[in-house]
Every structure is written in C-alpha cells, then in structure tokens.
From TrEMBL:
Coiled coil, from the record: none
Keywords: Hydrolase, Metal-binding
Protein name (record): Fumarylacetoacetate hydrolase
Domain of life: Bacteria
Fumarylacetoacetase-like C-terminal domain location: 28-225
Keyword Hydrolase on entry: yes
InterPro entries from the UniProt entry: Fumarylacetoacetase-like_C, Fumarylacetoacetase_C_sf
Molecular function per GO: acetylpyruvate hydrolase activity; metal ion binding
Matching Gene3D superfamilies: Fumarylacetoacetase-like, C-terminal domain
C-alpha cells in the first residue's frame, strides 16, 4: 500500500452526458491556429501546420456557472473549441484508426491571458503563464461519441452578442489527423482531452461578461466571469 506524504489531490474530471459517470482527465492538449481565418487574424501563415501546447489537468473548469477572472492580466481572450475526449491511445496512431480511440466530444473555451502570451512570444519564452492558468479550460459535459455529430456550426457570444462563428469542417486538420499527429509527439492514453482550435473572432472579455458557446451536435456551455 502506498503511503503518501500528504493526501493526493482530487482527480480532475468532467461529467459524462446522460450518465452518473465522470471522465477522469489525464492531461489537456490544445491545437493552435487550426482554422485558417483565425490563423490570419493572429498573423500566421496558412501554410504552416498547426502546433500543440498544453494545459494541466487541473485547469479544467467543468459546468461552472461562475469562472474567476485570472490575476495578472488586462487582456483576457475567449476561444471556443470542439474538445475530443479519448478512451484509449498509443503512439503513432494511424489516421484511419484514430476515431477508434475517441470516447466522446465536448464544448470548451480556451481562456487566454493574451498580454502574457504576447510578452512570452516576443521573448521566445514558454506560453504557460498565458494559457495554462487556473480555470483556463471551461468545458461542457462530454457527449459519448455514438450520440454526437461534429460537422456543424461552432459559435460563441458575449453578453448575447455573437463574437465567433464558423464550421467544424473549416478546421485545417480534422479530428483523425489531429489525433494521429499528437500521437507522434506523445503516447496518448485514456483521459486525454484535445482542444482542437478556434475560429476567428477572438477578443477580450472582462469581469461580469456572460459567455455562451455551442457546437452543433455536441453541446453547449455558458458561464459568467467573476
């Protein structure tokens, strides 16, 4: 029997739609600039392949009505995303086999301290302070893959005003390709979440803003920054 020096932290998890079960989160991988229009608004070259960054598992903020506005930023941005939840994994997964590893899908928001991210980029430093902070990954319940479709619209509003809109089919890399590429860099496993990128229209939000987003066929989420 293992004796811990202190009680281990609570396992981060996300509710599963239509079930009392929860999905234990192992880690969170995110794809950057996976929609051409967003890549253009961020100053990227559409010929560049998408890239990955990570958030810690405890950055997850499932079904939270109130999400804390983070410290040390004056430029917090929203990024609505389709999230893929894995039930299994491996290394060097073939594109044709990738969907066999999917447990389900969810709607997520990648909250970003854009000013800290920009400062890190300018100095060639890592992005963790801009991307991987507490409560930086609000997420809906996970819809099992058999009950989900993900080729429809993706959108986000702030205080009822539309900010982001697009189609999941607008992604430069599709879901099987994302899983396959990620598995070349990491050995994927059950419990991994992959945020698949955001369409154009990212912008700043402030305390008191009401944020709502949806992916057709997957679900919706809504929260207030406090």
């Amino acid at each position: 029997m293992t004796t811990y020096a202190f009680p281990p932290p609570v396992q981060p998890s996300v509710p599963v739609e239509g079930s009392e079960a929860v999905f234990p989160v192992r880690r969170i991988l995110c794809v950057g600039r996976n929609y051409a229009a967003h890549r253009a608004e961020m100053g990227g070259d559409e010929r560049d392949p998408p890239f990955f960054f990570a958030k810690p598992a405890d950055a997850i903020a499932p079904l939270m009505n109130d999400v804390p506005y983070p410290p040390r930023t004056a430029d917090l941005h929203h990024e609505i995303e389709l999230v893929v939840a894995l039930k299994s994994g491996g290394a060097n997964i073939a594109v044709d086999d990738a969907l066999d590893h999917v447990f389900g899908y969810a709607v997520g928001v990648d909250l970003t301290r854009r000013d800290l991210q920009g400062a890190a980029k300018a100095k060639g430093h890592p992005w963790e302070a801009g991307k991987a902070f507490d409560f930086s990954a609000p997420i809906s319940a996970i819809r099992p893959a058999a009950d989900a479709t993900f080729d429809g619209a993706i959108w986000l509003t702030v205080n009822g005003v539309q900010r982001q809109t697009g189609l999941v089919s607008d992604m430069i890399w599709n879901i099987p390709e994302i899983i396959a590429e990620a598995s070349k860099l990491w050995t994927l496993a059950a419990g991994d979440l992959i945020f698949t990128g955001t369409p154009e229209g990212v912008a700043a939000v402030v305390k008191g803003d009401e944020i709502a987003g949806e992916v057709d066929g997957v679900g919706a989420l809504a929260f207030t920054l406090v």
